Amino acid sequence: MDSATRPDRHVLQGLVMGAADAVPGVSGGTMALIMGIYEDLLTAISSGFHMILAFVRGDLKLAAEHFRSINWLFILPLLAGIGVAIGIASLFVPELLDRYPVESRALFLGLVGASIAIPWNRIPNPGYVAVTTAVIFAIPAFFLSGLPSGSIESPALWMAFAGAAVAICAMILPGVSGSFLLLVLGLYEPTLEAVRDLDLAYVGVFALGAVVGLGSFATLLRRLLTTSHDRTMAALVGLMVGSLRALWPWQDGDRSLLAPDDTALTVLALVVVGFVIVSVIQRSGSRSRHPAARS
What we know:
Elements: H1 7-21, H2 28-34, H3 38-57, H4 60-69, H5 72-99, H6 101-115, H7 117-121, H8 128-144, H9 157-171, H10 178-185, H11 188-196, H12 200-227, H13 229-243, H14 264-289
């Protein structure tokens, strides 16, 4: 079996994406882009969403066509890895962020910062339009990532549905963190608690909102990459650059940026570690796309 279609590889890719999605400020979409599966992911999600829509409308023939177009050997192992990683991360990530906030953000800063070159390098001839587009999208991302977070006690199910539909869109946008949006909406801790406590009603409604939001947005994003690839990639770069604000290691409780302190050397080392991790993941993704490159 070709390495590019090996289920075990896609499980590992899903684990990486799921772990990223569970961390506020880091995006699973960024990891998908690094590993070279971003366009394949959007295609599979879009086809799956249209399959569901066709089935709901009663058009079984069209639903079957969409079903056959989905690369199940790719998407099922990937989803399995994502689910397992999010489940495991829900057990320790909040405590890790609470006990080591500066160190955690430093590592994530290195991960995301190193990833910015990937979409930018996919623009054949970046010029004034690409730079302008990146700046336009970086500005709102910068301010959005500085919004204070909170937590809602016992959120209503409709809030879980709406929050999932919004946050899941961010999860497939490189540089935009779905977990961070859940934090801003006050749904991050309640959602992790629901997963830990096996609250099936909350988790089910959240999953339904995620399916609706993910399918709709993936279809739109796939179309944009087809019709306006370079500008879309430039927009993704802008989102990633702006989102780095959320990962500045030194912040207070209201997300105001602070000056470096005596942890600067540790922070710098962890940023370097993040860069190295991205380099390894990107190299692995390149080999999976070009098996002939390996000897």
